[in-house]
Amino acid sequence: MDIRSQISMVFHLDKCIGCHTCSIACKNIWTDRKGAEYMWWNNVETKPGTGYPSKWEDQNIYKGGWEKQKNTIKLRAGKGKGLLNIFHNPHMPTIDDYYEPFTYKYLDLIKSPAGDMQPTARPISLITGKPMDIKMGPNWDDDLSGTPDFARQDPNLKGLTAAEAEAMFQLEKMALFYLPRICNHCLNPACVAACPSGAIYKRGEDGVVLINQDVCRAWRMCVTACPYKKSYYNWNNGKSEKCILCYPRIEAGLAPACMHSCVGRIRYLGVLLYDADRIHETASCQETDLVNTQLSIIMDPHDLEVIRAAKANGIADSTLKAAQDSPVYRFVKTWGLALPLHPEYRTLPMLFYVPPLLPVMASVTQSGDEEQKKKLNKISKVWDDKWLYDTSMENIWGTIDEMRFPLKYLANLFSAGDEAQVKIRVKKLMAVRMHRRHVTVGDIPEKKAAEALGETGLTPEAADAIYGLTSLAKFDDRFVIPPAHREQALELLEDTGDLKGKAGFGTKQPPERGL
């Protein structure tokens, strides 16, 4: 075993309110400057929708990530093909796919001469400085998600029947959820493999993927290779840039800006231990096995053999302790609640999502046979939830298959199309909710709550722990950040005679990891 540590994240989609506070915090710190106006290292998309940049999930257009070939994988775009297309890359998003950044001529409201008409502030481009017509923005789906140009163009609708897809947009059944995205800091990053100059690398101590600005030569192949489109080109300084997971903050024991400012407290950060020897095996497995295989290389931080292998690799005791206390490990492995985004890209992303439950609860009372529906109609002054939990478990679980967001849609997002992976996690979330209703409200029979937990493999203690970390967790529970041990890095630099990296921005790079 080659045990290494990785800073990883979980986003709980059932709690995201789409306020974009995380995006603004990131923008103000990292991309509020010339050449980066269009960049949103953190963005929040409305689903269904085409996202940012537009249709980023359609790899037939952008050729990002890896594809399986016999017993191995290769870059979809290919480094050789990228070099041949260096002067015209048809698979790289243009500014129109993102959006042309704009502001308004606010001084026109103040300095316009007196007249009969109210002055207006015309939009002007932040790139050219000229007046422009606004056609889209970074969160355009949030405003226009129901239109044919946006929501109905979502690539994740693939595989749904025409009736299922259209039902999602009927006014009385319309539903949406928010999908916040940052760089996944993958175990097998396509951007690292695609960079001809070797400017992109994974840090050995925490797995954060960075771009060395001194080495970057603006090939921009990382932009094409990243299937999540989280590498950007700065048109002002001629360098590629991306989310750095606020590593200066992490080294100081602080949470990344987007996570610190999150209003819904949907974000969790912690250490995972993984077996680097199995990266190739995992990334090149069959698509149907991708989720289980990726989760299997995340190792138990309490296992003595894993601990010995980790120490042999120089992982500090404090990092091992952080891995044992990691909220990410509990969500991903202990409770089996979180899934990676688009595992079929084979980059082994280290950002996991707890799928949304709300559409199930909103539609659950519509299920059942006619006799039960008549019973429901008679109880007009009684909570639907009270009636709901008095019905059989078969009817309750059956509504998951009939939810307003088809399981197929969520599976296309989080499990490479495997609906069973999403269904068991939604059932677990629903069982926890039923258990807590029994504990706090008492309108659900103990037998029903126990039966729901039993069918999902959860214990009452586990359900209470999930509830605690989801609803009651304090800052230190959500963000378990290990000490940086930068003194060891400085000793290494001193041994090699290179002190240029004292501030953490040195040119020395750890060996590239991934494929």
Keywords:
disordered C terminus, five-stranded mixed beta sheet, globular, 515 residues
Characterise the protein shown here.
- The chain has 515 residues and is an alpha+beta fold.
- It has a domain at 356-477.
- Helix 22 (419-440) crosses helix 24 (460-472).
- The radius of gyration is 24 Å and the shape is globular.
- The protein starts with a strand and ends in a 20-residue tail after the last helix.
- One of its GO terms (cellular component) is nitrate reductase complex.
- InterPro entries: 4Fe4S_Fe-S-bd (IPR017896), Nitr_red_bet_C (IPR029263), Nitr_red_bet_C_sf (IPR038262), NO3_Rdtase_bsu (IPR006547).
- Its main location: other.
What's a quick, concise take on this entry?
Keywords: 3Fe-4S, 4Fe-4S, Electron transport, Iron, Iron-sulfur, Metal-binding, Repeat, Transport. Helices cover 37% and strands 13% of the residues.
Q: Would you count the extended β strands for me?
A: 15
Average of per-residue pLDDT values: 86
Describe the oligomeric state of these chains in a short phrase: single chain
Computed over alpha carbons, the radius of gyration is 24 Å
Outline the biggest β-sheet.
5 strands, mixed
Shape label: globular
Spell out the blueprint of helices and strands.
Blueprint: E1 3-12, H1 21-30, E2 43-47, H2 59-62, E3 66-69, E4 72-75, H3 79-84, H4 95-98, E5 102-104, H5 107-111, E6 123-125, H6 140-144, H7 162-167, E7 177-181, H8 190-194, E8 200-202, E9 209-211, H9 221-225, E10 231-234, E11 239-242, H10 247-251, H11 257-260, E12 267-275, H12 279-283, H13 290-296, E13 298-299, H14 304-312, H15 317-324, H16 327-334, E14 339-340, E15 351-354, H17 358-363, H18 370-378, H19 384-388, H20 393-401, H21 407-414, H22 419-440, H23 446-456, H24 460-472, H25 475-478, H26 486-495
Parallel strand pairs: 1-15
Antiparallel strand pairs: 1-12, 2-7, 3-4, 5-6, 8-9, 10-11, 12-13, 14-15
Subcellular location: Cell envelope
Cofactor: [3Fe-4S] cluster; [4Fe-4S] cluster
GO molecular function: 3 iron, 4 sulfur cluster binding; 4 iron, 4 sulfur cluster binding; electron transfer activity; metal ion binding; nitrate reductase activity
